[in-house]
Specification:
alpha/beta; 2 domains; Rossmann fold; 7-stranded parallel sheet; 7-stranded mixed sheet; 14 helices
Length: 384
Amino acid sequence: MKRKICVVITARPSYSRIRSALHAIKIHPDLELQIIVSGSALLPKYGSAIDFILEDGFTPDAQIYHMIEGETLLSSAKSTGLAVIELSSELHKLQPDAVITIADRYETLATAIAASYLNIPVVHIQGGEVTGSIDEKVRHAVTKLSDIHFVSTKKAQGRVIAMGENPETVFVTGCPSIDIAGKVKADPILDFNPFKKYGGVGDTFDTNEDFLIVMQHPITTEYHLSNTQTLETLTAITKLNIPTFWFWPNPDAGSAGISKEIRVFREHQNHSNIHFVINMSPEDFLKLAISSSCIVGNSSVAIRECSFLGIPAVNIGNRQFGRERGNNVVDCAHEATEIISSIQKQISRTDINQDFLYGDGHAGEKIANILAECEFGINKTLLL
């Protein structure tokens, strides 16, 4: 009998982090794929990741709306509770043999709580990493709720084991998003017009010339600073006067502040060189990134995929504090002058090489094979 593996996809980054594993599970002879799509992955405001999921040939078994509008600490807390309620109902109906939850968002925690109390084994992707923000608390809490761990690096494996997890349940597979990066590395040509395909607002420009990418998300533990932090980056990009694709933030506490600053900026800077975009498919985004001169902001894509692809990156602030990184990354504070000098330094570098820190491009296949053979259990004892 095939093992039923339910994957819960809750946001646009979650999909790119798991897509190759979805394909591998779907075609594996001993596995049956179930998919729940929920949260911001369903909302046009945040890029409708559900559209890309459907285009890739996946059919969700359930779609759950549980997000409470507001992008505040209170709305995030309430959305987490509502997600536990709604996910519990759907998981009870589907009765999977295991549930996969991804990374460190509040929906990740909700998934792990719901599955744990239904006595369904929890499989966690990307545990054992270190960052700033509330993500750090959530990630390690999910580790303790999980029964199988697919980690990206050796150091992450060591941390999960140090938290008392059974070493036999912790597998270094690499990050599944690197599988997509591997395909883009083999065929990096920007073979689409990003302005025509994805729309957006703001100036258009020649993508054969130098351009930047900005992905800046709110830091939950610093959400009250989102406006000023965004303004510093906008100021830096404007002064540099290099054409830029700026992507919309994740739906976390503080994202309303970022959105407000962007809208105010657009009203007063009509002739800027910035084009604002909500979302792209994982492949198209990485093709755009590999054609860019530098990626700027605080997204983990700058550290994961861009290290594999050898793309210069400027990491701003504390959101990625402590995360393992290759030599493609420089760090700076939320200060316009420092951001400018960091970007100028990065776009002039010639010493950035491909880094396999987060995997070799075969994580999805490894995950599916392990899921077909490993022993599932729900009883845990702290091993220290």
